[in-house]
């Protein structure tokens, strides 16, 4: 059994017009030391999935079904207090998209790290915890004397580094990194990502890395899960996802990112917008934007098919890999006017007279 096993997880948000099905039947596993990437457009449910694991979500969110098993413990059955004491930060921690939101503005950054350490380690004195926080600051390139600053006194990059310190201070087994560098200046993005990877190796933890950037996941992840409309539509090892994906959405995503080995590559975007998660239609959620959708795709929700070595795909046409790959590489395939529901054949008019 993997370190983390998520099975058929459904996390919905209560909204004025119904439930937003942000995570809608997701299964995903993470092994010890492994890095799994979650890619997909904004709003596809990546953050919701990660936050569900440590229940760090807003009050209107609810896990309505499914299982999250961490090292033999069913997390969904823990009370909030048990989850805080046994899992959050100590076993599974999170680096959020924007570190400024991760810290409480009324306490100093250092005191919040010290608080987390002491909450989980009864025997650690305040002095020892402060010493550890200072050491971590130093390792992450922040002046240890800044430990008594308030979050607003930090620059974005420093706050993000401090958040990494918080996420690492108890050497967790899993780090959830939610677009950990997007709020930062491009110049320091690579450095921060490198720091996270370095520390991850040092403490030998697993990681779920969320990003909408295919090039980041291809460089940092062992496996990649492609998320669309609240579901994982394709998952495989990083090389398979980058070199021979089977889902048209993955093929489309790949087209939209520059390729370092092919600088002349035409970037092609996927036309259309992500599905409405309040009342999603039957059928494949990608069908309205998919150049390969058939009548079946509009009508029948595809089940995950196993293509070997853990390569799972939710697509009725995933068998036609060569055709899909060839066609998906052409710009005209993704022209908006070429995409849409296949014409229904008009019923034959028969006359009795
Ligand atoms: N508090 C909330 N209440 C209602 N709906 C929400 C809430 N938070 C997120 N959603 C909705 O849930 C869906 C999934 O959002 P989520 O943030 O998980 O996606 P994401 O893939 O992480 O996107 P991003 O990259 O922009 O963070 C979206 O439709 C979003 O509008």
TrEMBL record:
Bias class Basic and acidic residues marks the residues at 331-344
Q: Name one GO molecular function term.
A: ATP binding
Q: Which SMART domains match?
A: AAA (SM00382)
Classify the protein's membrane topology as the record does.
Answer: Peripheral membrane protein
Swiss-Prot/TrEMBL GO biological process terms: peptide transport
Any one Pfam family here would be oligo_HPY
- Stated name of the protein: ABC transporter ATP-binding protein
């Amino acid at each position: 059994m993997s370190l983390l096993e998520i099975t058929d997880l459904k996390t919905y948000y209560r909204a004025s017009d119904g439930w937003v099905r942000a995570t809608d039947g997701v299964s995903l596993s993470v092994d010890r030391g492994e890095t799994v990437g979650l890619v997909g457009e904004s709003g596809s449910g990546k953050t919701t999935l990660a936050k569900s694991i440590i229940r760090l979500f807003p009050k209107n969110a609810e896990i309505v079904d499914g299982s999250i098993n961490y090292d033999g413990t069913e997390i969904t059955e823990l009370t909030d207090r048990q989850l805080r004491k046994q899992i959050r930060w100590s076993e599974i921690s999170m680096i959020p998209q924007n570190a400024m939101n991760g810290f409480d503005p009324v306490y100093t950054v250092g005191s919040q790290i010290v608080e987390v350490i002491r909450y989980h380690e009864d025997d650690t004195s305040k002095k020892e915890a402060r010493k550890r926080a200072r050491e971590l600051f130093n390792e992450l390139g922040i002046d240890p004397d800044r430990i008594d600053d308030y979050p607003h006194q930090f620059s974005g990059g420093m706050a993000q580094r401090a958040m990494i310190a918080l996420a690492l201070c108890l050497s967790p087994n899993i780090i959830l990194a939610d677009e950990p560098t997007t709020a930062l200046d491009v110049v320091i993005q690579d450095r921060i990502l490198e720091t996270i990877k370095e520390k991850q190796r040092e403490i030998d933890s697993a990681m779920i890395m969320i990003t909408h950037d295919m090039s980041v996941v291809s460089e940092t992840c062992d496996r990649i899960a492609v998320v669309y409309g609240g579901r994982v539509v394709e998952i495989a090892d990083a090389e398979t996802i980058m070199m021979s994906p089977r889902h048209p959405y993955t093929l489309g995503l790949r087209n939209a990112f520059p390729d370092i080995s092919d600088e002349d590559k035409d970037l092609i975007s996927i036309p259309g917008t992500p599905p409405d998660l309040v009342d999603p239609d039957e059928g494949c959620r990608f069908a309205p934007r998919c150049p390969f959708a058939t009548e079946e795709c509009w009508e029948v929700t595809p089940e995950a098919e196993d293509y070997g070595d853990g390569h799972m795909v939710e697509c009725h046409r995933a068998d036609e890999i060569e055709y899909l790959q060839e066609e998906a590489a052409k710009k005209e395939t993704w022209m908006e006017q070429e995409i849409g529901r296949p014409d229904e054949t008009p019923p034959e008019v028969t006359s009795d007279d």
